[in-house]
# Entry
Amino acid sequence: MSRHLLSIMDLEKTEIDALLDRAVELKQRAAAGKRETALHGKCLGLLFDKASTRTRLSFETAMIRMGGQSIFISAADTQIARGEPIRDTVRVMSGYLDGLIVRTYAQDTVREFAEWAEIPVISGLTDLYHPCQILSDLLTVVEKKGGYAGLKIAWVGDGNNVAHSWINAAARLGFSLRLGCPEECFPNEAVLAAAREAGADVEVLTDPAAAVEGADVLNTDVWASMGQEDLLESRKQIFLPYQLNQGLLSHADSEAIVLHCLPAHREEEITSEVLEGPQSAVWDQAENKMHLHKALLEMLLA
# Structure
């Protein structure tokens, strides 16, 4: 039976730790010029409903660098767009591919792919979760901070899919998470409730300064996610106090790092001064997607 990754909660703490350790090792091996062959002869499919730069490139490059190959498939160019059921499409794909990345809108869609697939299905993002993003962000935290245990991690802005996956990670790994969000854009209550039931140290605040006070890691994201672009103008005034600027950063620990999953709208959710500043780990964060994905694909496909 194939193993799938649709949310952080599909992994145990020991598995996340092993993935992070392996990603660190694979990154070091790449820097030393070592060649990987664990996925030689394997083929990964990427079926995307949504635009992508980093997720697509990092998964395709990860597959190649582990010795395999990948095929990109726009969902609009498949028979799914003409009404073919997912159950039919994915069973055919299971005969051609060794794994499938699905980037789509509804979490139920990626669940349906996993239900009928005979190969591992990995979420490349839905409107509810973005698990691979947080796994690679944790790799950056481990690199920069030596680990995640005992850290205070903060999120400011929209309580979106990336925030939901941070909430899942807090539930699995036990670090402290504070989210500063406008009340109109709080995270999904069911996601919060499940995390708290699992013992997560998660608090949602409307005061962004209180959310980032003493934080070791600060995260933000765009104020309107993909598919919500028409809401951006109306949200700007609501979110302005949540802009990650030098003033807000001054409330965090003096050695805090700044993360942004990109793309960034400079001078909206984050200023250029902070994005390009000495505490920004954003560019290492983007590269680390590839290294984490190498470890993840090896775990699920090798």
Remarks:
- The first strand starts at residue 43 and ends at 48.
- Residues 72 and 188 are 31 Å apart (CA to CA).
- The beta strands are 43-48, 69-74, 99-103, 121-125, 152-156, 176-180, 202-205, 217-220, 257-260.
